[in-house]
Write a structure and sequence with these properties.
- The chain is an alpha+beta fold.
- About 35% of the residues are buried.
- The protein has two domains: about 90 residues, Ubiquitin-like (UB roll) (Roll), CATH 3.10.20.30; about 200 residues, Nucleotide cyclase, GGDEF domain (Alpha-Beta Plaits).
- The radius of gyration is 24 Å and the shape is elongated.
- It contains eight helices and eleven strands.
- Strands 4, 5, 6, 7, 8, 9, 10 and 11 form an eight-stranded mixed beta sheet that branches. Strands 2-1-3 form a three-stranded antiparallel beta sheet, with no helix packed on it.
- It binds FE2/S2 (inorganic) cluster (FES).
- The site of FE2/S2 (inorganic) cluster (FES) has 12 residues, from loops.
Length: about 300
């Protein structure tokens, strides 16, 4: 709708009859009126000191402003971030995991090679027993390294690293953690194979892919099936690297992006280009025959 110059986004909502939370009555204190600016961000005047302080207090990510303090000078599109009946206690610091945010992360995919065929010759009890031991070992390797176990997909695993922001926790730390986790996964699988030698006709084998890049991270799903996860091109690429280990004939492929972001020296491993759908020129990767052979990197 059209509005007079000088009106705040909250004023405009009210004039348009759009319900909009405003616990402090538009005095720039409660932050319940916060909005995400969907379009027109570039043309907005910067926040004044008071608004800036509140945005910092609630750890607002980019494109979030207080509707009662924001007076647009051109066309904007906004989405209120709290329900119209929000109370003061709902205005907790912004939780990017809850509302979603784009951030740089590291993604690891793992798959158990040949397990489907192997499971056809086993009793269901044995299949579940072996798989649960495998999941437990891999889950511990990921969490001990600082990763977040996103989901189990059949006998596959998706894990995220570097989810938390901050000097010790961003994508650089995530890259180190992911490589540390991969090494531990390789070692734990070798130990598991020794333990299960009587039960397995052939040892369990892993395929792992690790990539880093921007992804949308947030709570997604429905009802009890809601959890924090990540979507985006970087996630798809990590999954494709895991699949590509079959063609390359190795246990692990790590994109050079991971090494760069984590400042990791992986020069001991062969480097090659992998063709990835939608990427001209392919993607540079390090070929790791056995994940257990990775060096250990000190965590930042
Ligand atoms: S209405 Fe309270 S900060 Fe905007």
């Amino acid at each position: 709708m059209k509005a007079v110059r000088g009106a705040s986004v909250l004023d405009i909502s009210r004039m348009g009859g759009v319900p909009h939370a405003s616990v402090c009555g538009g005095r720039g204190r409660c932050s319940t009126c916060r909005v995400h600016v969907d379009a027109g961000w570039e043309m907005l005047p910067p926040p004044r000191d008071g608004e800036q302080r509140v945005l910092q207090r609630i750890r607002a990510p980019g494109r979030v402003r207080l509707a009662c303090q924001l007076c647009p000078t051109g066309d904007v599109a906004v989405t209120p971030l709290l329900p119209a009946d929000a109370r003061a206690r709902d205005a907790l610091p912004y939780d990017p995991m809850k509302f979603g945010a784009e951030q740089e992360i590291v993604i690891l995919f793992a798959d158990l090679r040949g397990f489907t065929q192997m499971s056809e010759t086993k009793l269901p009890f044995d299949v579940v027993h072996i798989l649960n031991q495998y999941f437990s070992e891999m889950g511990e390797a990921i969490e001990s390294a600082g990763g977040y176990l996103d989901k189990f997909i059949g006998d596959g695993i998706m894990a995220l690293f570097g989810l938390q922001s901050g000097e010790q926790q961003g994508v650089e730390a995530g890259a180190r953690q992911a490589v540390t986790a991969a090494r531990a996964m390789g070692e734990r699988l070798q130990a598991l194979n020794r333990r299960l030698a009587q039960d397995l006709a052939t040892p369990l084998r892993l395929g792992l892919g690790i990539h880093a890049g921007p992804a949308i991270v947030g709570e997604m799903g429905y009802g009890r099936a809601t959890s924090i996860t990540a979507i985006g091109d970087a996630v798809n690429v990590a999954s494709r690297l895991e699949s590509a280990t079959k063609d390359v004939g190795c246990e692990l492929l790590i994109s050079t992006d991971v090494a760069q972001r984590g400042k990791l020296d992986l020069s001991a491993f062969a480097q090659q280009q992998i063709s990835i759908r939608g990427r001209e020129g392919g993607l540079g990767v390090y070929v790791v025959r056995h994940a257990a052979d990775l060096p250990s990197f000190p965590q930042t």
